[in-house]
Hints:
Transcriptional Co-activator pc4, Chain A; alpha+beta; single chain; four-stranded antiparallel β-sheet; 8 strands; 21% helix; globular
Amino acid sequence: MPDHTPMDLAVFADDEGNSVRITVLGPEPSWSGGFAAEIIVETPFVNGRTDLILYDSKLQAWAEALDRLDAGEDIAWMEMSNGPSVFIRLAGDRDCPEVTVEDESHSMVTVRVPVVLPDGWIADHRERLRLLREGPRPRP
């Protein structure tokens, strides 16, 4: 993985110190064409991370999730797959969006993070996805 610079596929962060990031680390050696990645949760109260593998169908599902978010719908991404799931509610319990990371298959921990997102965050995430897809592809 030394040739690949890590990049954030998703960043949900606010001025309160709450954030959820999905960072692509580089090619995943155990999965041809896949990316090693991690979900990082940081808040003033709790911090954690979990590993995941991203491959084409997960990236396509992320593109579709962004379309649904843009249409005002809440989403569940990677819900029925091996590894962690990400849920985004646009109108969370604290009058702002909230991101929930569920890691039932490994740690059995769920973390819900309220975040006040900036205008244009969906377009920003579409651009991040485009850059990842158009960048160097992992080699088997």
